[in-house]
């Protein structure tokens, strides 16, 4: 189950005025969506919400919502920040079953750039997708997808089928989409061709 627990209370007032009143009370307004139930206007104490947000494990992770003695697994999908103060301004939570298959965006990171012949010769890694949409169980959402650049040369393409996805996770989008490419200057490309001809 999730590590983060959000103690929420139900908001009586909704709309802009209700949200303003909630913020004046030192709370962050939000809405709970999903499942077979109607949306519910909720609020969390600002300091508690900030603490959960800055762990880095709130957005896109399974979180336990607590209301009195009741608990409910939820996914935090949206957190709006104030443009000036950068304080949490509003959030959206979605009800899920703990083992339910959900669709969620997961960040993609790359490692071992120094072991890529193409990048060592002056090529550049052009990242097309900084995150990929996956279908995976709500209680097994990966923190990130890491791709190894070892051996990649100029002109090579990293597609979603190249990524090592955790067990139970599958790409949500149809087709073998491009995630990144190793591109190079004309000089680097001609050097690569010359090396290939010599070999």
Description:
- By secondary structure, this protein is of the alpha+beta class.
- It is built from 4 helices and 14 strands.
- It has helices at 15-24, 46-53, 117-120, 186-198, and strands at residues 5-7, 9-10, 27-33, 40-45, 62-67, 70-81, 88-95, 101-111, 124-127, 131-137, 145-148, 157-159, 170-171, 178-183.
- Strands 1-5-6-7-3-4-2 form a 7-stranded mixed β-sheet.
- A hairpin with a 2-residue loop joins β5 and β6.
- The chain is elongated and about 60 Å long.
- The N and C termini lie far apart (55 Å).
- The mean pLDDT is 87.
Key structural traits:
18% helix; RNA Polymerase Alpha Subunit, Chain A, domain 2; Ribosomal Protein L25, Chain P; 199 residues; 4 helices; seven-stranded mixed sheet; 2 domains; four-stranded mixed sheet; elongated; alpha+beta
Query: How many whole angstroms does the radius of gyration measure?
Result: 22 Å
Put simply, the count of helices is 4
Give the name of the CATH superfamily of the largest domain: Ribosomal protein L25, C-terminal domain
C-alpha geometry = elongated
**First-residue to last-residue Cα separation:** 55 Å
Q: What is the spatial order of strands in the main beta sheet? A: 1-5-6-7-3-4-2
Residues in helix, %: 10-25%
Q: Which CATH architecture of the largest domain? A: Beta Complex
Helix/strand order, N-terminal first: EEHEEHEEEEHEEEEEEH
CATH fold-level name of the largest domain: RNA Polymerase Alpha Subunit, Chain A, domain 2
Q: How would you characterize the largest beta sheet?
A: 7 strands, mixed
| Overall SS class | alpha+beta
Which spans have pLDDT < 50 for at least 5 consecutive residues?
none
